[in-house]
Amino acid sequence: SGGGRYWPVVFVLIAGCAGPTAPDRVPKGEPFDLRVGESALTTDDLRITFDAVRSDSRCPMDALCVRAGEAVIAVTLSLAGEAPILRELQTIPDKSQTTYSRFTITLSSLAPYPRSDRQIQPNDYIATFVVS
Question: Which pTM value belongs to this model?
Answer without folding.
Answer: 0.79
